[in-house]
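Troubleshooting: if your tokenizer reports a length mismatch, compare your output against this known-good record of 189 residues.
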Amino acid sequence: QYANVQDAHMALLLESIDACLINLCNGQEETREQVNQLGAMKLVIDQLKDGDIVMLSSDITRNATILLRSLVYNVDLNKSKEIAAMYPPESFNPLVRLLSARQGSEFGPTAERTASVAVNVCWVMSTLARDNKDLQEKVRESGAVPVLVALLEGAGQTDIPLASAVVSTLANAAHGSEPNAKTICKARG
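Known-good structure output:
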């Protein structure tokens, strides 16, 4: 799975760091803010940008998407907007690639192992797009809408957590955005 022992050790280290940060941030608003201010979102996205197909269905990716979801989520809408402002807008493409993995378009037999990754990615996109015109636009521009619709019409038929996350993402992306609403309708065929 890894090119050499050094890569395997680095993968294990990343997996462990993500798991520690998930535990530190869980329910700890102040800690989550500090971790975000240190640029954790960009580092997590960098983890998700690289890697081959096997890596995308690994525990590293699963932990990275759980951590990313934890970092962007906030019940307070004003704080959510502050967090969304820290999110690198160019980072939607790696998220769409992960959604495509669940759809199975690129990843074939490993697609089923990416189920929790897709759910977390959808919740990240949903949270970021909530009442944020710029990031709603990024959802559309990244090509996420057709992938989300395909997930809803495919795996979402039997995977209720995925369907819920996809519907929330589409709703938040479309709320107040006529171009997104039209793109969703067009993707439905």
